[in-house]
Amino acid sequence: MTPSSEVGHPFFARVWPVVVTHETAAVRALRRENLAGLSGRVLEVGAGVGTNFANYPAAVDQVVAVEPEPRFAAQARAAAAAAPVPVVVMGDTAEGFSDGEPFDAVVCSLVLCSVRDPAGVLRRLHSLLRPGGQLRYLEHVASAGARGRLQRFADATLWPRLFGNCHTHRDTERSIVDAGFEVDTSRREWTLPFWAPLPVSELALGRARRP
Predict the structure, then answer these.
(1) 147: which of 36, 92, 143, 182 fits an S-S bond (Cβ 3.0–4.6 Å)?
(2) pLDDT tens per residue across span 143-167
(3) May I ask the CATH class of domain 10-210?
């Protein structure tokens, strides 16, 4: 299938597979927790190289994974072949994806920081869920204090250009609520030491639902 919309990040496409191969044990555990208990039909947005695929529980009937970066999509399809549940990889953006049947859940893992229009993407995801369906998210989020100042500096300089349009100082959970979701659970986790000079140490793990 020809992708309806491609997003090209040649440098990031080389770097990200190395990064996820060396993710900390804390991040890997958060990925597993983000998917725990899912069932039915699931949409994964910005699937990358398919890092999540091995963690889907057996109760999931099908994962439809959208990934517009063609190099990532190719690697994701290889990962899908080894997944414990059926996975179909589509070369679409979240904005351009359409499907005739509502999903039971949507999964976002380290992707809402990089989309061009977070509010528009979240509204679209809201529309793709059945009433009562869940949004599961594990996302970089805006930090306070000195870390927040570092994030704002990174976002205004080279970070988005080098790392696939990643913006580290987004108030993602506010955007989730503004899109019409109700947040059921949410917590913040530090995945690197506080002193580590990186703007992506703090993650939000949460579950929201379409009323």
Answers:
(1) 143
(2) 999 899 999 999 999 999 999 999 9
(3) alpha beta
